Amino acid sequence: MSGLVQVVVYPPSPTGGRRVWADGEILGLARSARDVAELVRRAGMAGVTEANVGEAEAVEWRGGGAEVWPAPEGPPEGGAAHSRLP
Fold it and tell me: Are residues 44 and 1 in contact, defined by beta-carbon separation less than 8 angstroms?
């Protein structure tokens, strides 16, 4: 990728991650602001770091900003998943 790239970070999924896209291609699934910064760096954008990714002009956050990282849904911690079969 070259030139000005617009990065879109989509709302959290039920698994806790957030899809990250740039120029119509998937960069990956981020689980933290650090992940977003790394995906953006790998896409060739310099100057975006974990510390500034939440304010970077080229990064559009949908469904909450860089501080929104809900835990994945699943069984309670320390508990087992319950079967839905009778």
Answer: yes
Q: Which regions of the chain does DSSP assign to beta strands (E)?
A: 7-9, 18-22, 25-30, 59-61
**Distance between CA atoms of residues 25 and 7, nearest Å:** 10
Please report the pLDDT score of residue 6 as a whole number.
87
How far apart, in Å, are the Cα atoms of 49 and each of 10, 42, 79? Answer: 18, 12, 37
| Report field, pTM of the whole predicted structure over 0.85 | no
How many helical (H) and strand (E) elements, i.e. helices and strands, does the chain have?
1, 4
Beta-ladder partners of 29: 19
